[in-house]
Every structure is written in C-alpha cells, then in structure tokens.
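User: I would dearly like some help making sense of a protein record. This is the protein in question:
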Amino acid sequence: MKTCATTDVGVKRSSNQDFYFCSDSPVGELPNLYIVADGMGGHNAGDIASRFCVERFTELVRESRERTPIQTIETAIKTTNEELIAKANGHPQYEGMGTTFVLATIQSDRSALIANIGDSRLYLINDSIRQITQDHSLVAEMVRNGELKKEEARYHPNKNVVLRALSTHNVVSPDFYRVKIRQGDYLLLCSDGLSDMIEEVEMLKLVNEYEDVEDISRKMVELANENGGKDNITLVLIHI
C-alpha cells in the first residue's frame, strides 16, 4: 500500500480544527489505522475535540483486549466519548464541542473495515467512485427521505448541521461498513472541507490523471482551495 495524509487550513478559516491519524503499521490488534476527524465548537474547542478524540482513541485501541476489531473500535469510541464529556465538565468554553470521526483499517482478507460518525466521508475509487459512508447530517437525512435532491444538498443553508458526532451531549455509536478491495483501488477518507469543494467526478478525474498518492492529494487540496476553500481540508488517501 501507498498512503498520504495531509491537512490544510483552507482559504476562509484562520485556524485548523481538523485532525488525522495515519499508520500503515499495526495499532494494537488492528493491522493499520487511518482516521480523519473534523472538530466543531467555538473558540479553540473544535481543534481540542478532534485532537483529543483521535489521540485518546488510538491509545485505547493499543490497550484494548477486545476479541474482534469491531468490538475494539466500538469500545474505544464509547470510552473516548465518555472522556470527552468529562473533559468538558467544569469548562464552559468546551460546552458543545465535538468532532466527526471516520476511520478505516485494511484487513488480511482484502477487505476494509470502516466506521464513521458525522459527515466526514470514506470513498472507494477505482474505475468509478462510490461514497461508502452515510453522512449523519440534516441535509443527508433530507436526501434519504426524498425531501431534497443530492445536488441541492451541497448548497443548502443547513449543510453544516450534523446530527451525530462525538460530543459533550451524549455518547454515540458509529456505523460500520465492510467493503472488498482489489489491487489498484483507492480509499479516500476526508473532511467536508474537501467533499463540499470538489465534486465526486473531479475526485475520480484526479485519480485517473495522477498515479502517485502525494500528487493526487496535493491536487485535491489545490482544487478545493481554488473552488473556494471555505473550510479546513483534510484527507487520507490509500492506494492498494
């Protein structure tokens, strides 16, 4: 595998509230681990939430004695969420902070185990592009219910309303997905600072035009900024 992880503050923001983790080597019982988190909250709370959740989650995975990868991930997320709530208690400036969380681990049976909370995404890219994760957002729910067309969701005024996140309000569980992967496939984990600024067809075009993951990643960030760069841009790109 070849991997590249990068983050960029974007054009409109003054600080970066995204955080990522990228390890091609084992993390605890997981053979590898890739995470993108997009923090939310006032002041510096968003970047505190995303960094804390990624770093604490990976610590818990390393310490885990659970029997399966799903149990390992689910328990680590639950504990991380509980500790985030405890961290916010007594600190009014942290009230309401939270983060999205999307992760992948590639297993020996040539499948990818994926978990997500929020609207950060994972795409599978080969001859086509397919969004594997489902957004936990208001507009995504409206699209699923037939109240809104997919192409309208990108520009909806409530685009940034997230319905599920690691937050100080309650403990949440992730959605899990498993996909078969083949040699030549790409997995793209990204925050909405990328997916809101680049159409899926543009992502596919860049993957077809450039082979090296670093070149593709750099071009994606450049294009997101050229298209407005309205939010922080973070991605992890994995080439099988």
Q: What stands out?
A: The first strand starts at residue 2 and ends at 8. The helical segments are 45-63, 69-88, 138-144, 150-153, 192-195, 200-209, 213-226. The domain at 14-189 is CATH 3.60.40.10 (Phosphatase 2c; domain 1). The first helix runs from residue 45 to 63.
